[in-house]
Design a protein that fits this description.
mainly alpha, Prenyltransferase, 16 helices, transferase, transferase activity, 5-stranded antiparallel β-sheet
């Protein structure tokens, strides 16, 4: 597959291997642009955006645009998406907040990769509807409800991992708002309150501490930084990390998963621990298939891959981690440099964050 040159990560992955993984993701994309977990399988908006970001890293920009346009065409009027699609049809209609928000991360990542003003203009309204819904779902105290009830009101439950993802999504949305010349002060207020909740109000979130994502995602998303980030990662290291194999999905099961391991690698890089991130990316390579795709997970007492599937989102996590750890791609700092996005409450015009002197997109 033609595209951007991808650097080698000595002892971990070669650029050619990363390119093969990008090609493996592209091979699962349907002709209409949809990016399911695997061809013929389910599609959810969050994972589809992640896979599209990996395509952009590999230079497959037309494919990434097609994936984003597929999602844009299926956004509901309230800004939400269904939580699952199969063959283009909604198969799980629940509207989840992290699905509504994540296109903002994908579009900002695409802008960093391509500086495609036309795509930003085309999808800006879609991103705005999604993040407006997220802010409407924010609960007292700053956390965001995980889903809408059937009557359209927010559920009372907030999930920490999803909220950390929304923290990043809102900041990307603020960046896009500056790019389009349409500031969104409500988003800035929302992300300020959400960041405070993630750092200071653990009781605002449902207790899912057995999941590794709740451990590292506040660091990955940039809500917890510096020494606090390093302390957080060190605190539960022994609970989740299996030396030489990767990261448990849940602390009480002997099951390591590739995506979680790569996400931990991203969190480590964000905390300034790049060497440790490289070690984790290297540790999960036992999940690599000959064609560059990746098995989802491994039950190590049984020496068994489980589930028996190779998912686009697992492969995408590998590509994004490799790009971030190499630090050479135009979007590589999105996950590793929390300061690269505008701070909540900061005027973009005075913050000087626009990459390469980029101007304002006219929607």
């Amino acid at each position: 597959m033609p595209g951007a040159e991808l650097p080698d990560l000595p002892g971990v992955l070669t650029g050619r291997q990363v390119r093969a993984t990008v090609a493996a993701i592209a091979a699962e994309q349907d002709a209409d642009g949809s990016l399911p977990w695997f061809r013929g399988g389910q599609l959810d908006p969050w994972d589809s955006v992640e896979a599209a970001m990996a395509l952009d890293v590999g230079g497959a920009h037309d494919r990434a645009r097609a994936a984003y346009r597929w999602l844009a065409a299926r956004q509901r009027l309230d800004g939400s998406w269904a939580s699952e699609y199969r063959a283009g049809a909604e198969t799980a209609p629940a509207a989840e907040s992290n699905h509504a928000g994540y296109l903002a991360v994908g579009l900002w990542h695409s802008w960093l990769c391509t500086a495609d003003e036309a795509l930003v203009s085309e999808l800006w309204t879609v991103v705005r509807r999604g993040l407006d819904l997220v802010t409407r779902m924010q609960l007292p105290g700053g956390a965001v409800a995980w889903a809408l009830r059937p009557d359209g009101t927010p559920d009372d439950t907030a999930l920490l991992t999803g909220n950390a993802s929304l923290f990043q999504a809102l900041r990307c949305g603020v960046a896009l708002a500056g790019l389009t010349g349409e500031p969104q002060p409500d988003w800035e207020l929302a992300v300020t309150d959400l960041g405070a909740a993630l750092r200071e109000r653990s009781d605002a979130f449902a207790d899912r501490s057995r999941y590794s994502m709740d451990w590292y995602y506040p660091v990955l998303a940039g809500a917890v930084t510096g020494g606090a980030a390093r302390d957080r990662l060190a605190g539960d290291w022994a609970r989740f990390v299996v030396p030489g194999l990767g990261v448990r999905c849940v602390a009480d099961q002997p099951w390591v998963t590739g995506a979680e391991t790569c996400e931990l690698a991203l969190a480590l890089a964000a905390a300034g621990q790049t060497d440790a991130g490289l070690e984790q990316l290297a540790a999960m390579q036992h999940l690599r298939h000959d064609d560059g795709s990746y098995w989802t997970g491994f039950v190590y007492p049984d020496d068994a891959r489980w589930p028996v599937e190779r998912t686009t989102w697992t492969a995408a996590a590998v590509v994004l981690a490799a790009d971030a750890l190499a630090g050479t791609g135009p979007a590589s700092g999105l996950f590793t440099d929390p300061s690269a996005l505008p701070a909540a409450g900061t005027s973009q015009e005075s913050a000087g964050w626009l990459p390469g002197g980029a101007g304002t997109v006219t929607p």
